[in-house]
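Thread: Modeling a multi-component assembly for a lab meeting

Hi all, long-time lurker, first post. My supervisor asked me to bring a structural picture of a complex we are working on to next week's group meeting, and I have zero experience with this. I have the sequence lines for every component (611 residues in total). Could someone generate the structure of the whole assembly? Inputs are pasted exactly as I received them:
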Amino acid sequence: MKSKEKKLIGLAGIIFLVVVVVRVIPLLMDSYDKGLDEMDFLEQRIERLRFLVEEAPFIVDEEAEKRAEVAALEDWVFTGQDSNLIGTSVQRQLRQAVEEAQVVPRSYNTPRIAETEGWILVTQEMDFVIEQDNILKFLALLENSRPKLHVTEFSINRNRRQYIGSIMVTGFSKTL
Amino acid sequence: MNLGIPLLEKIPFREIGLKAQSLFPLGRHNEILKRIDASLLLYDNSLINTATGTLFEIVPNEDEQYADAMARVARQLLPMTDGKKHVLLLLPTADFASTTFNMNAMSEKMVRSALELQSNSLIPAYDENLLLAVNATNPEGVALWFNEKEANDLFRAFEEQNIFLSAIMPRALAMLDADDETDKTLLINDEEGSNISFLQVSGVAIRRLLTVNKTDLEQDVFAKQWDIEINQLKGEAVKTMSSLDDWQQIRQIVTPVSEYCFHPAGAIKEEKQISLAKKSKVGMAVTACLVWLLFAPFISNWLKLKDLQAELERVEELTIEPRRMRASIFDMEEEWGALEEYPNQQVGNVLISLNEVLQGALSSFSINKGVVDISGSTDDPAYLVELLAQREEFYNVAQSTNTRGGGAQFGIRLNLSSTDFETYDEKYPVVSQGR
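Re: Modeling a multi-component assembly
Sure thing. I ran the full set together rather than chain by chain. Output:
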């Protein structure tokens, strides 16, 4: 091998070393750091899953409770997909409570329909006159009504021995 | 284009290489010597296998050179069945030229270089190139010389007989015990035919080497001078080897004295190849170590990742059912959340709570999404506010209208603690609103 060739090989070796130091080693370090991050991620995930194994008996109970809750909630729901029919059902439910609590209705407004994800909300407003003794009864009937009527707004003003008031109730129906 | 070359020429690669080489100890061709597995000794035209004591006389055939005849006899002494033998050839001491040296305060390497440079003036009788062997660890001693061409001829002749001639050494040195590390002085008298060689050896360094022809000793002057010289040499033991029988009694493979071994060019070439192979192995091992060191963290990470992935699979297997249930719970919450989380204002309970405080003073009540407005008449509305504010189910209790009639009429606004329509509306926004 000639001297010049040896020198060229030496120079190539130096350039190779420079490339290794400047490019390869940073890439390797980056790859090493990524490996550490991945390990960290896996360790955390394993830790969470191990905790889940310990929690498994409680999760079984929790799931059973939730199913029972959902079963109870199903009674709260007005059935039907037509919003007008649901509005009618809400109004009927309200009238039933009104009758049972001996509330004197003065007017019913037209039901208002709103929709949130998965649900139709029907709001019914009514003006009424009520005896003082029937107020709590009326509210209790609404509270226990099935399907359920949620009292959104309620106001009463004393007028001698009676109260004049208005109420807004909301009923829920599931969309498909 | 030849722009790079002038710059390269300025880089002193050779000097750097020589500098680096000087950092390593002087080579003594130890690799070749280690492989020696037979020693042959020449005495009076007979070649002796020192390990067995067997011998054959060397009788050159017609047109056969002496080296070839010797190699042929060597082949007879060394069985082919043992594979290629690596031989130490012990030649008569008188076959080696000797010079004395005295070079104070010089390194071993420099002594050797100085002797090589002076070879022509030291031994003017020889025109051909000479090989040098010297123990230069001491400032003074004896340097031995051997004809390079003769060594190479012997190597070639032995090679033709499939014998590897590793080294050539004066036979007198066969008397040294290479394992003896003491510096005891030994006198060796090596006689053969008309030649007498007398050596004084300390440890493995030849201090004096005197050679004389017996015919010269017939003259009184020479004989007297020889006696004087010999008597000056002191030693702890004297060994005289003057017959074939003396050399046959060695019965072992002679250990080479590396300082006084002469290596033919072919042997040195093999030494270089062995050394290169060894260096290559070391280089490969170092490279493998470096690569290992470089990749060890990655391999470690990779193994750990594999372990973690295996562990993840295991715990995932264990949690299939809990995760399914969790998902089921989540789905139910997602599906029924809008209904279940709808704030329940419990208006009846609010009225009962207010009545406990107001004691029939309430004339109007209004509740709208958790905000309660009440009005009525009392002697001390501020006191009412205080009482209501103390109850857990209310917060933000404040008078909402001016008091009238000397403070008898009041208006109070408060919020229910148990309801949060704002959060609910954010979580379940109304997406469309109809009639």
